[in-house]
Specification:
This protein is α+β, with helices and mostly antiparallel strands and 77 residues long. The protein has helices at residues 5-10, 12-24, 39-46, 58-71; strands spanning 29-33, 50-54. The longest helix has 14 residues, at 58-71.
């Protein structure tokens, strides 16, 4: 799964913005509502957060399952 376009475009700034906000708020776990294909789930997991994803779209959940399994991640959704 290639990086999402917004992650590629923003590079480290995208990641640093999440890290800063989460650190300031004392966040340890993240619920990614409307997780889509799971790009941010992977990012949050790699940053060391406990992560759960959700999406109303069955098609997106199918993509998330395929993407996460292909990358070796076991993130609940």
């Amino acid at each position: 799964m290639p990086p999402a376009p917004r992650i590629q475009a923003a590079g480290g700034a995208y990641i640093r913005s999440f890290r800063r906000v989460f650190d300031e708020g004392g966040v340890r776990s993240v619920l990614d509502c409307a997780c889509g294909t799971g790009h941010d789930l992977v990012l949050f997991e790699k940053l060391g957060f406990e992560v759960v994803g959700s999406d109303i779209s069955g098609a997106m959940l199918g993509r998330v399952r395929k993407n996460l399994t292909g990358l070796g991640f076991e993130i609940p959704w």
